[in-house]
Amino acid sequence: MQEILIQIKNEAMSLIVGAEERDIEQIYIDFLGKKGKLTLAMRDIPKLNIEERAEIGRLANEIKDILEDQINDKRKEFKKTSKTSNHNSSGKQRFEDLDVTLPGIKPPLGSLHLVTQAIEEITSIFEKIGFSRVRYPEVEFDWYAFGALNFPNNHPARDDWETFFIEQQPDPKMGPVLLTPHTSSGQVREMLKGKLPIKMLNIAKCYRRQSDVSHTQMFHQFEGLVVGEGINISHLKGVLEFFVKSYFGENRTFRIRPYHFQFTEPSFEIDVTCGVCDGVGCRLCKEGWLEMGGSGMVHPNVLKAGKIDPEKYTGFAFGWGVERVLMMKEGISIDDLRLLYSNDLDFLEQF
Ligand code: DAH
Description:
The protein has 351 residues and is α+β, with helices and mostly antiparallel strands.
């Protein structure tokens, strides 16, 4: 009797282990059903003598428990896989679960960052009038950022740019290494390429030791440089006019104010009429004007540093902040510039 029970157990176990979903209920019937092999075998137990009965009875019940557990485990396993893979043997479940009339689930859509959008727009405006986009190192030598731009050694004007210096042995010719504080560092790099005329647009990250509502330590500038024969201030004004009207709108205008930069002579600051009050004067602006940034005619010493003959060629340059022009655009109100870089989706998703 004992052997018969163990044989039944072994047979059932090997079937259960290799069972497909459609087989499992039949296995249950064949072994544990009313006329199943184990059930029938157990019916003979009362016929045994008393000593055997207790022992065989315990064994039979143990085998019954084991088979029931194994079959239940298999059932659970099949249920799980049919849920995740969405198809079972009959395919019925799948169609019952699927309601094609329900609205779909919209995947979350990202968008370009506000500053990236501005950079793309600025680039396409200048490309229309023949400027080519270039990029130069963010980790730069003092010489390109200051020296070549007509800053005498140890001149205090370097302090105006609140530069981050890298702790590294200075290069004997190029000086200390720093994070470029302005895109003007690309001017002489572009000249040294040796191709004239130049019409470059350098847009890059810049770094300064500053952080308040209108400044971040990392920000972007776009720098224009035009060098060729006979270039003069009226060309600069024409380019300015084109940019201001294209970017801010036909109703906006600009003015140039005398200023001082080491690398331009004469130098100017450019103001654009305030988009909020239309140039009349309001809380946001200085009597109707918003300051956009610097520009001027390239200083002869800068041309010389770039191996260009200042007797033969002239040029103009301008450098403005991307975040700054963005804030000056109509309809965009950002009262704290640091919001742009705080990764706050509630803020960014508005644009
Ligand atoms: N580099 C200057 C700054 O960061 C801006 C600037 C002024 C750029 C005059 C120019 C320029 O190209 O001609 O403040």
